[in-house]
Amino acid sequence: MSEEKLPESHGSAGEVADHGDPFADPGLPAHEPRRTDIDERAAKRAERQVSLMFVISMLATVGFIASYVAIDPDKIVYIFPLGHVSALNFALGMTLGVALFLIGAGAVHWARTLMSDVEMPAERHPIEADDEVRADVIQQFRTGAAESGFGRRKMIRNTLIGSMALVPLSGVVLLRDLGPLPEKKLKDTGWKEATPQKPLQLINMSTNSPMTADDIVIGSLTFAMPQGLHTHDEDFQQRIAKDALMLVRIAPEDIKDDTSKELGFQGILAYSKICTHVGCPISLYEQQTHHALCPCHQSTFDLADGARVIFGPAGHPLPQLKITTDEKGFLVATGDFDEPVGPSYWERAR
Amino acid sequence: MSSASSTTSGAAKPASTRANPANKWEAAADWTDGRLGIYSLAKANLRKIFPDHWSFMLGEICLYSFIIIIMTGVYLTLFFKPSMGEVIYNGSYVPLKGISMSEAYASTMDISFEIRGGLLIRQIHHWAALVFVAAMLVHMMRVFFTGAFRKPREINWVFGFLLLILGMFDGFFGYSLPDDLLSGTGIRFMEGALLATPLVGTYLQMFLFGGEFPGHDIVPRFFTIHVLLIPGIMLGLLVAHLILVFYHKHTQWAGPGKTEKNVVGMPLMPVYMAKAGGFFFLVFGIIAAISAIASINPIWAYGPYRPDQVSTDAQPDWYMGFSEGLIRVMPGWEISVWGGHTLNLGVFIPLMVVFPLVLVAIGAYPFIEGWITGDKREHHILDRPRNAPVRTALGAAWISLYLVLLIGGGNDLFATHLHLSLNAITYFVRVGFFAVPVITFIVTKRWCLGLQRRDKEKVLHGRETGVIKRLPHGEFVEVHAQLPQQDLYKLTAHEQIQPVELPAQRDENGVARKAGVFTRTRAKLSRGFYGEGSQIPKPTAEEHHEITSGHGHH
Ligand code: FES
């Protein structure tokens, strides 16, 4: 490492205090004048530079106001290499940036070239008080404590501590009505309305209509929601966060898990779309391997094998919904998922 | 009040005895002084000395970006509607016309497209937040690696640490507010973490969300937390932090004329005022220009949040990336306990155990080091990182862990951009989580020792001049020049702490005494910190004399 990189290196020789010890502190180095300290012309030039920066800053502020008034917010311009950007945003930001930056640059330049750069030492004072003050304060405190009788009247002291410890609980209790109790809310989904007598149709999310088995081709991924749910419903967000379904069709001989095959219909399997890790919607499907991948943390589920987790941080398979067809041939569910959908939690039982 | 003064001054009104002020400014100052006592305040501080070192500006960047965030934040609250009520978008951004979305998202769209300058302020707000957290991290690294956190500054380290944590979380709440697809994904992530908490998880979730995910309350609640609760606490901490900085005065590097008892630099007025004040405008100006050029968080490209949809680049902001890394590389351990209960270790361990530990390790460090060294003195002279090899190596190891986790958090980006297997990256991070910090530690420590040896070499043999000399017998040698004394001083000014010794096995009466586990661990750690393998002995004046006094020296 060169000497220049030493901390606070200045290169001017200080006064050498003691030749006996080569490592002794030589004391503060003498001040070296700058160009602007000795050359009045240089100082004048620096002065003009500083003022010029302030003047340009003023112009930039005028430019800012002009841009605000003149440029249409919808206007898009092409600026190399930024691409297509909002003209207004660009103009406002650049003028504001220049106006602010030059005030700063001017001030710093002023300080560096024209204000005195003589370094001077100031004494530090120890943070700790000296022994006399310490003894004095402790004595005063003792007197105060004795006068209060805090140490002597133990019953008062202890009950005070007790009441102080308990009173914050009121604050905690007041938070109770922030939300309802969990109860079974996380377990039930919108599909629980479905019964064998009154099945619920599976509504295709993209066409908004019920589907027959033939609508689902092998190797495709289709997203569905329960009949009766509409995107404009008040609680749509909350319901779709649990009800979202993904349908795959796999050649029945490729399905490795028998229970899973039985829950499906002619190789059509209906899994929860909500990842069992922390609840992202699963969106990527690889038809060759029947693997579904969650984009958030890459949990990978083998849909041909009961949506078993084969990679990533999810802890259990995707819940599956039992489906069949109704008399009109539409795909329907006859009950809720066999286990809670989404991220797992303490009360969750398999 | 004591009675002494009232008896001497009697019933007379305390009056200003000020001579006539020179001009109306002085008169105004006199008036104010009579009410606020400003003269006594200014006496100590007007010419207060500030040492100058480029790294001191890191803390200033934190302060200034925080001010910028507050100013732009106030502007944004004037237009933002923190509500999850559904509306149909009918603004000027055509691709989303007619789509139903929350008012929060719609008003963020309006800020971006309808309100002139709104987009700019939004961008400045977000960019300043990134700069803020980044500057806090780097500022803390400066303080850490130079040992500036030692007594008397431990408490200020803790304040700074709390500011970092609060800053990170406020950033998280902030980017959750627009209710776009990306922010909703982040909130879902948090929900999963809450749910994974044993016993109380579901209650925490219901109470935070006011019901099931996502419910209608989360945006207004986060809004209050984001603009009121956390910034309020931060403001208090910040003021306390600055008061302490002022009270302790700055640290300084060892150098000629600089001691533990003084502070060398330039006075607050005018130099420091101009430089620091000017620097605020520099920071603000640069952030404004970046915001004009580089678009950040283009919520219109993601669309409104829907729990069954996801945007492709579901990434948190970089400072939360390590938590994302933790959760991506953790194996999905989930166990059933007591029949009906699930312990979701796969989410609980990374987010509720390791995540806080990684952070708290920073906050507690000064106390740990202080305990190991047993050093109770005040320190105002900074350590060069090489002269505290173990500390430096620990810091480097911590940073390497952070970076490894950041790679884990962006494993999909690394995979697509570098054409690597995603699974391979994940496995690498799983191993790296344990291995990389250890390797970094060892390498950094050796590197520091190497640098210490170089320093010693330079002190004893001088610096290479590049001048080649031919000796009478034909050998060529390079002339080494003595370092000037100020450099010799700088290179040897650091003190070398000795490890804490175990108390004598027998006390003065010869009775056997056993040191407790605590004491023994401490002695061991202390030896690790300052023992033989952890520092190179400083050159002594005798060694220097011997080498410089004549024979064979070149
Ligand atoms: S939410 Fe799907 S992997 Fe984390």
TrEMBL record, chain B:
<feature type="transmembrane region" description="Helical">
    <location>
        <begin position="189"/>
        <end position="210"/>
    </location>
</feature>
<dbReference type="InterPro" id="IPR016174">
    <property type="entry name" value="Di-haem_cyt_TM"/>
</dbReference>
<feature type="transmembrane region" description="Helical">
    <location>
        <begin position="124"/>
        <end position="145"/>
    </location>
</feature>
<protein>
    <recommendedName>
        <fullName>Cytochrome bc1 complex cytochrome b subunit</fullName>
        <ecNumber>7.1.1.8</ecNumber>
    </recommendedName>
</protein>
<feature type="transmembrane region" description="Helical">
    <location>
        <begin position="222"/>
        <end position="247"/>
    </location>
</feature>
<feature type="region of interest" description="Disordered">
    <location>
        <begin position="1"/>
        <end position="21"/>
    </location>
</feature>
<dbReference type="InterPro" id="IPR005797">
    <property type="entry name" value="Cyt_b/b6_N"/>
</dbReference>
<feature type="compositionally biased region" description="Low complexity">
    <location>
        <begin position="1"/>
        <end position="17"/>
    </location>
</feature>
<keyword id="KW-1133">Transmembrane helix</keyword>
<keyword id="KW-0249">Electron transport</keyword>
<feature type="domain" description="Cytochrome b/b6 N-terminal region profile">
    <location>
        <begin position="28"/>
        <end position="254"/>
    </location>
</feature>
<feature type="region of interest" description="Disordered">
    <location>
        <begin position="529"/>
        <end position="554"/>
    </location>
</feature>
<dbReference type="GO" id="GO:0022904">
    <property type="term" value="P:respiratory electron transport chain"/>
</dbReference>
<feature type="transmembrane region" description="Helical">
    <location>
        <begin position="157"/>
        <end position="177"/>
    </location>
</feature>
<dbReference type="Pfam" id="PF13631">
    <property type="entry name" value="Cytochrom_B_N_2"/>
</dbReference>
<feature type="transmembrane region" description="Helical">
    <location>
        <begin position="279"/>
        <end position="300"/>
    </location>
</feature>
<keyword id="KW-0472">Membrane</keyword>
<dbReference type="InterPro" id="IPR027387">
    <property type="entry name" value="Cytb/b6-like_sf"/>
</dbReference>
<dbReference type="GO" id="GO:0016491">
    <property type="term" value="F:oxidoreductase activity"/>
</dbReference>
<feature type="transmembrane region" description="Helical">
    <location>
        <begin position="427"/>
        <end position="448"/>
    </location>
</feature>
<feature type="transmembrane region" description="Helical">
    <location>
        <begin position="347"/>
        <end position="368"/>
    </location>
</feature>
<keyword id="KW-0679">Respiratory chain</keyword>
<keyword id="KW-1278">Translocase</keyword>
<keyword id="KW-0812">Transmembrane</keyword>
<dbReference type="GO" id="GO:0046872">
    <property type="term" value="F:metal ion binding"/>
</dbReference>
<keyword id="KW-1003">Cell membrane</keyword>
<dbReference type="GO" id="GO:0005886">
    <property type="term" value="C:plasma membrane"/>
</dbReference>
<keyword id="KW-0479">Metal-binding</keyword>
<keyword id="KW-0813">Transport</keyword>
<dbReference type="GO" id="GO:0008121">
    <property type="term" value="F:quinol-cytochrome-c reductase activity"/>
</dbReference>
<feature type="transmembrane region" description="Helical">
    <location>
        <begin position="56"/>
        <end position="80"/>
    </location>
</feature>
<keyword id="KW-0349">Heme</keyword>
<feature type="transmembrane region" description="Helical">
    <location>
        <begin position="388"/>
        <end position="407"/>
    </location>
</feature>
<keyword id="KW-0408">Iron</keyword>
